[in-house]
Amino acid sequence: MLKLVECVPNFSEGRDLDKIKQITNVIEECKGIKLLDVDPGKDTNRTVVTFIGTPDEVVEAAFRAIKKASEVIDMRNHSGAHARHGATDVCPFVPVSNISMEECAELAHKLGKRVGEELSIPVYLYENAATRPERQNLAVVRAGEYEALPEKLKKPEWKPDYGPAEFNAKAGATSISAREFLIAYNINLNTRDVAIAKDIAFTIREKGRLKRDENSKIMKDADGNKLRVPGMFQNCKAVGWYMDDFGRAQISMNLTNYKITPPQEVFDACCKLAVDKGTRVTGSELVGLLPLECIRMAGLHYLKKQSHTTGVPESELIHIADLSMGLSDLYPFESDKKIIDYMLEHSNDLVSMKVDDFTELLSTDAPAPGGGSVAALCGALSSALSAMVGALTHGKKGHEDVYPEMEEIGVNGQALKDAFLKDVDADTDAFNQIMDAMRLPKKSDEDKALRLAAIEEATKLATLIPFGVLKRTLEAAHIARAVVERGNPNSMSDGGVAALTANTAAVGAYLNVVINLPGIEDEAFKTETLAEAKKIRDEVVKHTLETVAITEEALLKQL
After folding, report:
1. In 10 A of CB 144, how many CB atoms?
2. How far apart are the first and last CA of the chain?
3. Less Cβ around it within 10 Å: N or C end of the chain?
């Protein structure tokens, strides 16, 4: 699955739009990068840039941006309201999907090493990428700001993690990190009373509220420090305010780790707290973007509360989250603009085409899509049918004993469906990579060797895509049998068709594996792949024949 990383570098320039544009241009020029936001501030003289891409692409774009910033920004002439110590002041990596915080920390090290060595800029690592505990806090690392660097760099304890321990007067220093995704999330109330919003904010936020005695006097400890009552949620910063445009009070918050404090749990708590104060929550608002995983978690949360199956499509999870949390209360919630994972999706992918458009393209002499893509599509249709029967069984009277199994089938069916759909395009992409490799130059012996190596690797990839489809069809065949034998009897024929389409996917994928093998020189790869492919194909075919026989026999008994 595609790994996505967000990068949010802050540059010490917020007034000269030409300089800012030069920096963002080099980011946009990087292949596979999506520039999401550019937010310059005149008073702070600082610009926050947000972009996403795959790990290697993001590191490359970040390096180019830091390099360009060191060329166009001169810290000797910089002043602004925000703390800073370099032309590129900070550059955090944020895991978005299918990548861990540890991997993002490795990216921070990779970038830091390159910036230090190639640009001679002192680099400090902070937060989850920090090399020592005292450097985890950015405020500590940046203490004294740019002006303190000449003396700071002379101290052994402030030797940079990467780069020279020498003052770079023009570029200053850069801090690089890995951190969690920050979600700006607001909850709306049906009241103009800001005091209620503030009181709820004090109750939910991590820092809580000041502790008072029975006379409302602030309480202190023996050293004179003010005491606080902790709030309900970690990683939650919240305030209450009034929205003139909408004539209502709102609880505004930043959730700094949605895996610990997810929005749906805060929303549910605020609903209860609001009722206790004689008001109610009307909905909520997402400011900026959020990861797909986060809103999927919310959809699952509310489906479980309703005792409904969670084996539903991704789009339904998003719809349920939107309805349950009132995300469209102030403005329509547009998933393609609010979910960061969707920002890199391409509208011209095969799976996004209408059925008639896909079949029209398929029927032409275009080299792709072809049989491999169709085999993957059959796998998706099989899994979708099994998930459908699972949903038609779960929650239905008389089938209580199979609810857990049908729930699992629905969830697995949806996951299989999504994986097969990705391979509809992956098969075509792999074919195109072979074509690209064959077009490489072959003038010199070195060119010829590189070309042959590229063709070999591309052909292996073109083999492994349908091979992956083939392996998945075995699970698709198994869940098709399960819904035939234990699913809703009224949908038994659907289970039979699920088995047949899984079989077509298996045999079709097998043929696409075999047709690619002659173009591969690696004999061990060819032998092992073919042997396993035959074994899986035979098992799926046998299993399907049995499933269809079971289905037909049961249906004929109803005559």
Report:
1. 12
2. 47
3. C
Element (H, E) at 247: none
Using CA atoms of 60, 65, 67, 72 in order, give the dihedral in degrees to the nearest 10: 160
pTM of the model: 0.80
Whether the per-residue pLDDT at 26 is higher than 60: the answer is yes
- Residues 521-549 have pLDDT tens digits of 999 999 999 999 999 999 999 999 999 99
Query: Is pLDDT at 432 greater than 90 in this prediction?
Result: no
Rounded to whole angstroms, the Cα distance separating 241 from 332 reads 22
DSSP string, 34-87: EEEEEEEETTTTEEEEEEEE-HHHHHHHHHHHHHHHHHH--GGG---SS--SBS
* Whole-number percent of the chain with pLDDT over 70: 99
Q: Cis link prior to 369 (omega < 30° from 0)?
A: yes
Q: Tell me the C-alpha distance between 384 and 287, whole Å.
A: 34
Active-site residue, from 82, 109, 399, 478? 82
Q: Is 427 a catalytic residue?
A: yes
Burial of 295 (0-12, 13-18, 19+ CB in 10 A): buried
- Average per-residue pLDDT for the chain: 93
Catalytic-role residue among 322, 341, 423, 427: 427
pLDDT 10s digits, 141-154: 999 999 999 999 99
Please list, residue by residue across 247-261, b when 16 or more beta carbons sit within 10 angstroms of its beta carbon and e when fewer do: ebbbbbbebbebeeb
CA 281/CA 434 separation, integer angstroms: 56
Query: What values do phi and psi take at 144, rounded to 5?
Result: 90, -15
Domains of the chain: 4-178 (3.30.990.10), 183-344 (3.30.70.670), 350-557 (1.20.120.680)
